[in-house]
Amino acid sequence: MKKILILGVGAQGSTVAQRMDEEENVSEIICADADPAAVDNLVKILKKGKGKLVDASDIDSIKEAAEGVDLIVNGLPLKFGKNVLEAALEVKCDYQDFAATESIHKNWVEGIKIMYDVYGKRFSDIGKTAVIATGSAPGLICVAARHTMKYLDTCDTIYTIVYEGVEAKRFLPFWWSPVTALSDMAGTPIAYENGELIEGEPFSRPIYRKYDYLDKEIRFVEHDHDEPVHMGLNAKEFFKGAKNIYFKYAGAGVAFAEPLYRAGLLSKDTETIDGKEISPFNLVLKHIPPAPKYHDEIKEIIEEGLVSDTGAMVVEATGTKDGKPVRVETHVFAPGLAESFNRAGLTAEMYLTGQGGALFTKMFVEDKYTQKGLISSDMLTFDQVDYYRQCAEELDITMDTKVIDLN
C-alpha cells in the first residue's frame, strides 16, 4: 500500500488526488498546500485524504509533510522545484512532477541537464525513482512520441504539435495559469536541429496542417516548451537517432498573445509612462481572467456558449522502415470541454493534464517503473508505454497511429 504526498492542490494536483483515491494500492493521500481553503475543499471529497499546510519555500516544512510517504507528487509552481527535489531525497521517497523546474539553474536547459546528471545519480544512489515532465505536454505527448518510434528503424525529424482549439464566447484566452501562459508565449523557443539545441524567436517558423478531424488549416508556430530539450538530449537512445525535434503550437492563446508580443507588451522590463514605472507584462496580466477551475464557473461558461470545442495533439516523425522512407503520425484523441465537464466536472485542459499526470502516478502505485534515478516522460520503455496507453484508453484518451509511405 502506498502513501502519497501531493504538494499543490490546484487543477493538476487535485485531479491526481481524486484519481489516486480510487486506487486499491493507495492507503493515504496527504493533500498539502499553503492555501487552507484549497486543502479543505479537496480533502472533504476524498475517502483517503488528509490535509496539511506547507510552506514550500521551507524545505523542512516539506520534509515534515513527507515523513513516511512513498511518493511526492509536485504540483507546485516551478520556482519550488529544487526544494521539493531536495526534500524527496532527504526523506528517501520517489518523486514526480509535471514540468521541469526553473530553480536549479538560471538557464532552464542547463537545469534539465543537472536534473538528469546530478539528481539522477542522487536518486539512483538511494534506490529511488524520479519522473519529471508528466502532464499532457510534456507528458502524454512524450508517451505518444515514444510509441511512434515502434514504427521506425531510424528517425530524422520529429514534430510535436499541439492545437488548443477550445474557445469560449466570453473573454478567456487561456485555460491554464495566465502568468505561465504569457511567460511561455514570450519565452525563447528551443528546437533540436542538426543534432544541437538552438534558440529561436517566439511565433516564428510556421508550419501549416489540415487534419481530417479539423474544419480548417491551422498555422502552428515555435513556442517555448520542454519537449525538444528532453527528447533532443535523449534522441540517440530513445528516438532512433533523430537529428531534428520541434514543438509547434497553435490556438486561441497564440492568436491572442502574438500581436501583444510583437507590440512589446509581453516584456517584463519596466517602462516609464506618464511618470509611472510600469511593466507591460504585468499590465496585460492584470486584465486577463484566471483560468476557470470550479464546477459552477465551468458550467456557466459552457451554458453561455462556445465558439469551438476542438483541438489536436500530434506527433509526426519521418525516417525509415525496412529501408524505405516513411512518415509516422500518432494522433492523440481526448474529450473536449463539454465532454470533460460531463465526465469529471473539469475543463478539457484540466482533464487532459490532470488525468495524464495521474496515469504516471498510477504507474508508481502499480510498481511499473523499473528504472532507478531520474527519467523524463520520454524515457519510458515500450512496455511502460503500452501500460500507459492501456490505462489512458479507460479514460477515453486514445492514440491513433498511421504509417505513410513517402516513396
- CATH C-level label of the largest domain: Alpha Beta
Number of discrete domains: 2
Largest sheet: 7 strands, parallel
- Please state the average pLDDT score: 95
Number of helices, where a helix is a run of at least 4 consecutive DSSP H or I residues: 15
Compute the gyration radius: what is it? 21 Å
**Which architecture of the largest domain would the CATH scheme give at its second level?**
2-Layer Sandwich
State the share of residues found in helices, binned by percent.
25-40%
Question: If strands are numbered along the chain, what order do they take across the biggest sheet?
Answer: 3-2-1-4-5-6-17
Quick structural summary:
The protein has helices at residues 11-20, 36-43, 59-66, 81-91, 108-125, 140-148, 178-186, 227-233, 235-238, 252-262, 280-286, 295-304, 337-344, 348-365, 382-393, and strands at 2-7, 26-33, 49-53, 71-74, 94-97, 129-132, 154-168, 190-193, 196-199, 207-209, 218-222, 244-251, 271-273, 276-278, 306-321, 324-333, 373-376, 398-405.
